[in-house]
Amino acid sequence: MSHVVVVGADRGIAAALVREYLARGETVSAVCRDDGAVWTDSAARVVPHTDVTDNAAVRRMADALDGPVDLLVHVAGVGAFERFGDFDYDAMLAHYDVNALGPLRVVAALADRLAAGARVGIVTSRMGSIADNGSGGMYSYRMSKAAANMLGVTLYRDLREREVYVMLLHPGTVATAMTAGAPGWDSFTQPEQSAAGLARQLDRLGPDTPVEFRHQDGTLLPW
Ligand SMILES: NC(=O)c1ccc[n+]([C@@H]2O[C@H](COP(=O)([O-])OP(=O)(O)OC[C@H]3O[C@@H](n4cnc5c(N)ncnc54)[C@H](OP(=O)(O)O)[C@@H]3O)[C@@H](O)[C@H]2O)c1
To answer: How many other CB atoms sit within 10 Å of the CB of residue 77?
Structure first.
């Protein structure tokens, strides 16, 4: 049985990922920003009150986890949908803090818990792909997710010497609170389907996996 840590587990794709790994029989730590009450009647071990922009809270989360971590999946993130000219720079910095620095804080805090053979998945977004940007807009979301992709590649290089393996992931276009109100929301991928796909990609991650940015459906995405 593996110890899986899912960060951002209050709701959405991360909550579906917690359910996916519980259904597989893994030991799952659900790291939540709120009190984690949603997991009260489940087998998940809850680590509450972990805002990934809060250095002290992230350190407390690392201390609260039990034992070594075999798989860490950072999912927490915020959407931001500015058009050109519609810029609130303080808000944009806050998005960067969550989407780019958040996964760095979490991985750095848990580095000593990641034993040889451990895996790290970071959910970024296709919106962070420079090569795939065919529509513009969404400035701080795109920029912060591009930074998260760079973070992931850098971690991939640095953690390999510890035999810890890193993959960047896109969950698809998923029907969650983040995308609510978007045209066609009813036909978006369901969180459960996205979570199952993300877990399948992470199943493949190991010493022979090159640094990759994968769609949950298995498609290799450009940087
Ligand atoms: N939905 C999509 O189509 C889509 C597409 C591409 C990428 N993604 C990425 O997938 C990830 C999950 O998205 P989602 O659709 O599941 O969104 P969601 O339903 O809005 O869930 C976001 C999760 O992140 C948590 N979170 C936000 N800010 C946080 C912070 N500062 N510290 C800790 N946790 C925080 C939220 O906690 P609270 O409940 O406390 O707010 C919530 O649990 C995000 O990184 C998103 O960018 C989503």
So the answer is: 28
- The pLDDT, as a whole number, for residue 81 is 85
In this structure, how many other beta carbons lie within 10 angstroms of the beta carbon of residue 51? Answer: 18
CA–CA gap between residue 6 and residue 64 (Å, rounded):
14
DSSP 49-81: S--TT-HHHHHHHHHHS-S-EEEEEE-------
Q: Tens digit of pLDDT for each residue in 57-109? A: 999 999 999 899 999 999 999 998 899 998 999 999 999 999 999 999 999 99
Q: Ligand 1, from 58, 178, 217: best to mutate by most atoms within 8 Å of Cβ?
A: 178
Task: Write down the domain spans for the chain.
Answer: 3-215
Nearest CA, atom 33, ligand 1: 51
Rounded (10°) angle between helices 139-160 and 102-110? 20
Q: What is the pTM of this model?
A: 0.98
Find the residues whose C-beta lies inside 6 A of ligand 1.
8, 10-14, 33-34, 51-53, 75-78, 98, 123, 125, 170-171, 173-174, 176-179
Fold of the 3-215 domain: Rossmann fold (3.40.50)
Nearest ligand 1 atom to alpha carbon 13: 16
Residues 22-58: pLDDT tens digits? 999 999 999 999 999 999 999 999 999 999 999 999 9
Is 83:140 a contact under the CB 8 Å cutoff? no
